[in-house]
């Protein structure tokens, strides 16, 4: 269960991105410009219909307890709203066949869900940052940071996991379990970190994917080493990284509408 909407379920110094100043757009070749457009079938990704969304919201409602106070404060309602937002996102992914890491380790670090792929798996970190009027592009920087955490391109500067990457401490947590998802059971403990890093993704509301990929493409082209790429990485390699940002089967409007109904019920 998510602690907060913006919580990556990693240590706070890793999970909370300080939005960096956006790098100046690089000079791109025609190939680079085409790469920034993203995969041609992005729009074909499934989004949940109303009935499926009601089911997802109902499950999220069972997972997230409302404030106990009969007259919750605005801060309590906001905290509940954030938890519901994250839980709806996670439940939407579960509804299309993802396996929740939380079923194996409550509050599992970094990665929220495991999706089976031909010959492998996807370790997905679920995020639902929303734009704000005051900082309209900050959510894109947060998604970029989430991707760097999930792929092991950044280390914690302080705290319990100082000097460790996301895949490192996620692997330690998973290797400590007696039971693992089927897709991970045959991975030797020494290879767990590498396999997580290789198969990491960030799943975000479907309507955010295009802008987030474009942002990452620009930033990683200008600063490849910061994103775990070799200096001078080509457009194809940068695009492969940006494509690790993948859609949830819900849009931000669907999430906000569902959470808004729950908030209205609490507010009376």
Features:
alpha/beta; disordered N terminus
How does this structure look, described?
Helix content is about 45%, strand content about 10%. The protein is α/β, with parallel strands linked by helices. The chain has one domain. The chain has a 5-stranded mixed sheet. Helix 4 (about 75-95) packs across helix 10 (about 250-265). The radius of gyration is 18 Å and the shape is globular.
Number of domains: 1
Strand content: 5-15%
The computed structural class is alpha/beta
Count of DSSP E strands?
Answer: 5
Largest sheet: 5 strands, mixed
Placed side by side, the strands forming the largest sheet appear as: 1-2-3-4-5
How many DSSP H or I helices? 10
Roughly how many Å is the radius of gyration? 18 Å
Mean pLDDT: 84
- Characterize the overall form: globular
Concise account of the structure shown:
This protein has helices spanning 12-15, 30-36, 50-63, 74-94, 138-150, 166-175, 189-199, 209-222, 235-242, 252-267; strands spanning 99-100, 113-117, 120-126, 200-204, 245-247.
């Amino acid at each position: 269960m998510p602690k907060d909407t913006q919580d990556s379920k990693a240590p706070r110094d890793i999970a909370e991105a300080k939005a960096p100043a956006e790098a100046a757009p690089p000079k791109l070749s025609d190939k680079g410009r085409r790469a920034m457009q993203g995969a041609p079938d992005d729009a074909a990704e499934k989004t949940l219909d109303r009935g499926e969304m009601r089911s997802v919201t109902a499950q999220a409602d069972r997972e997230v307890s409302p404030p106990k106070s009969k007259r919750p404060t605005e801060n309590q309602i906001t905290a509940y709203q954030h938890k519901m937002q994250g839980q709806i996102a996670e439940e939407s992914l579960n509804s299309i066949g993802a396996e929740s890491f939380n079923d194996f380790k409550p509050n599992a670090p970094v990665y929220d869900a495991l999706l089976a792929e031909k010959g492998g798996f996807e370790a997905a970190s679920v995020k639902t940052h929303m734009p704000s009027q005051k900082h309209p592009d900050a959510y894109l920087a947060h998604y970029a940071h989430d991707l760097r955490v999930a792929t092991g391109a950044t280390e914690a500067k302080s705290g319990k996991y100082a000097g460790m990457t996301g895949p490192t401490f996620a692997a330690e947590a998973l290797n400590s379990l007696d039971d693992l998802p089927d897709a991970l059971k045959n991975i030797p403990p020494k290879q767990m970190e590498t396999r997580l890093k290789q198969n990491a993704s960030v799943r975000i509301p479907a309507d955010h994917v295009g802008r987030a990929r474009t942002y990452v493409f620009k930033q990683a082209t200008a600063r490849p080493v910061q994103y775990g790429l070799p200096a001078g990485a080509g457009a194809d390699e940068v695009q492969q990284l940006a494509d690790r940002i993948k859609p949830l089967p819900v849009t931000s409007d669907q999430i906000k509408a569902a959470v808004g109904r729950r908030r209205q019920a609490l507010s009376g």
